[in-house]
């Protein structure tokens, strides 16, 4: 019914989109349908998991046009949302940091929660292709993405890797995608037991928070290992939730991904993750009484506030490296800075971008 109403409103004539007055931009392509109807076609395919052939019959258009619309909207959403959600700065991250994470770990160094998500794919007829796609974890042919989020579940474009075949291991995919390079020097990444990436983290000067595996012949873990496992398990909830939200919002992934649509699946996965930023954040110790709560994107990039979050910037000992703490004290003792607040001094230290300088020195020492 919605499709028919949209078609009646739009009409069957072609629509030419014109550039704004005074713009040097050329006219865009001729549209067979209104852009709202095109987005409805895209949602039918991605969110309702309806085949292109059936959508073409519903809207009275050719299947090739449905194909072009779906690919066009997937590309447009990826490009547009990538500009909306860049890598957050440390100041943006520390401005709204979860109290629960600070309470459990005693610091605010965790910048990213990293995890891998696998989605079933068709079984290839060629044995060589099937061997590459076969996942030992899922016991099936899969496509695999690495996804990172902040402690409240916010993702950004660079925190979502391209799709890889299911046979690749978590450490190898982490190394190849270079997803850790966006984590500032001195910060930490929180991962699951299978991510043996301590060496990669050491090369970049970041900390890896990972639960310890049971050693061969070990019957019981130590109290320290058990405590670390519990801390990681309780603070990794946002990345697990964001993975589930993405799959629930994109019914396209309920079926096995066709080998001919791997490129399309990569685009849909990326934009579906980015669209989750318009939902509420995963904040523990939230009172639940606040009305008109901001979404995750509002909190992370546009100074939104919510219960369970704290501005940790004034407390440099909770987030700063040794060099940053020393610099913070130097600025505070300078003549004329007596009236500066702790937050203002912290912003001055953050603006100096110490992580980039320290990482460069760290790499030079290693080489």
From TrEMBL:
<dbReference type="InterPro" id="IPR027806">
    <property type="entry name" value="HARBI1_dom"/>
</dbReference>
<keyword id="KW-0479">Metal-binding</keyword>
<feature type="compositionally biased region" description="Acidic residues">
    <location>
        <begin position="1"/>
        <end position="17"/>
    </location>
</feature>
<dbReference type="GO" id="GO:0046872">
    <property type="term" value="F:metal ion binding"/>
</dbReference>
<dbReference type="Pfam" id="PF13359">
    <property type="entry name" value="DDE_Tnp_4"/>
</dbReference>
<feature type="region of interest" description="Disordered">
    <location>
        <begin position="1"/>
        <end position="23"/>
    </location>
</feature>
<feature type="domain" description="DDE Tnp4">
    <location>
        <begin position="114"/>
        <end position="277"/>
    </location>
</feature>
<protein>
    <recommendedName>
        <fullName>DDE Tnp4 domain-containing protein</fullName>
    </recommendedName>
</protein>
